[in-house]
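PROTEIN DATA CARD
Card holder: Carbonic anhydrase
Chain length: 329
Origin: Discina gigas
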Amino acid sequence: MIAATLTSHLASANCIHGTSLHRREEGPGGTVKVSSFGYTGLRGPLNWAGLAPENSACVTSSNQSPVNIDNTISLATEAPVIVIPSVEAAEFENLGSTIEVIVNGTTTVGGTKFDLKQFHFHTPSEHRIAEEYFPLEVHMVHEAADGSGAIAVLAVTFQLSEDGTTTELLTAVTEKISEIAVPGTVTETGPLDFAPLIKHLETTPLFQYKGSLTTPPCAEGLTFLVTKEPLPLNVKTFNAIKSIVKFNSRYTQNSLGEENLVGVASTALAAARSPAHPAPSDPSGSAILVEAEGKRPSPTVEDVSATTEEPHCIMGACHTRRIGAVGSV
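Structure generated from the sequence above:
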């Protein structure tokens, strides 16, 4: 579904950066192209659909990532088989929306072989497990070797250690991180030994589910394998990563198969702002904004971008008021 959904307008999709669906673009003077989306204000997740028409799934899809992993998401029935050669150095890039390492390898899941294209960082973690978040999550992005365009991501969580224990792979990755402080810049990592990470991924339980890209265009159909147990990370390495990445975690999405949260919120907002349909109140007099599930449709891209003579800023983006319009914002 991802391959069928995506178009050529993917200058910002670092979830699939480096795959055949979004090939890496170099900038002038050995730099890399910087992402056009972000995590704050009008460039942030609540307005991703407003940045480009092909991002409509960000506000309409009912199978979005990341999610809170609860008892509705099962563990993988078999361990992946992973091969990632150790390297003396790898390209290390600042895309503006994340920092990314270019490496090669393979992961076989359920009889399907996937080629590793890159891994990148999210802080704080995008996925939560039983409501708990982690300081860092690494996404190892793979594309199916059969050319189908299927995407699989190994999502590795990290927890700060109390005794200074750390994952040496990240120490080596960040050896020259100060050289990519500016978005668009490129450097190299130190020597990378993937053996301890591979052992962890092949032995720890992995939650598996079908979700979406966590960055625009938010296309569905991606397979996530999320580690149940985190790897250790010391404060020094975490702070080095955080100082460059800042904050790049998409907010937790609704449960899989349920209405997109932006649709839920826009329905409540339309009801609250419509004089013909005032929001109901609870006994204390406080307005109840969330209506029963299924009563109103999710907004369309046309709803989000509709204009009248009464502009308002809603949901992190400037829209116009459409009085009484169901599913519009």
